[in-house]
Amino acid sequence: MTPEGSLLKLVRDYLSAERVWHVRLTQGAAKTSTGSYLKTGNAGMSDILATPWILAGLKPCRYLQLCILWIELKAPNGRQSEAQKRFQAEAEEAGHYYLLINSLDTLIAWLKEHRFKSNMHT
């Protein structure tokens, strides 16, 4: 398994254990029976889309918010492509969160800082 593939498995297992809804995103193209191509995904789209509940707002007025978190996985020496940088800018412009990670520790730290903690959430 590639370093990025191993990281993908770790991240998905961790999000599942933490009960954070997420989906693996892929992009590509498939040839149809008519000979045309069906494209999926957007250029530069992140590897995972997750929706954790986070604490938002300014202190002391904090409230719960279901956030959109795009997670881009990279091998230790991996770099974002120009398409990925454009996707990140678009996501952040829309008010979404974008996390570029090369280890599970980065995700754990982000969730620890931002996430709402409760045994009552599903």
Shape estimate: globular
Q: What is the CATH C level class, in words? A: Alpha Beta
Return residue spans where pLDDT drops below 50 for at least 5 consecutive residues: 118-122
- The total count of helices amounts to 3
Rg measurement, Å: 16 Å
Architecture (CATH level 2) name: 3-Layer(aba) Sandwich
Q: Main sheet? A: 4 strands, mixed
In helices, the fraction of residues equals 25-40%
Strand residue content: 25-35%
Could you characterize the architecture of this molecule?
Strand 2 and strand 3 (37-40) form a beta hairpin. The chain has helices spanning 3-17, 82-93, 104-114, and strands at 22-24, 28-31, 37-40, 48-50, 53-56, 63-66, 69-73, 97-101. The two termini are 32 Å apart. Strands 1-4-7-8 form a four-stranded mixed beta sheet. The chain has a two-stranded antiparallel ribbon with strand order 2-3. A two-stranded antiparallel ribbon has the order 5-6. 31% of the residues lie in helices and 26% in strands. Mean pLDDT is 86; it is low at 118-122. The protein has one domain (3-114): 3-Layer(aba) Sandwich (Trna Endonuclease, Chain: A, domain 1), CATH 3.40.1350. With 122 residues, it is an alpha+beta fold.
Features:
122 residues, alpha+beta, Trna Endonuclease, Chain: A, domain 1, four-stranded mixed β-sheet, two-stranded antiparallel sheet, disordered C terminus
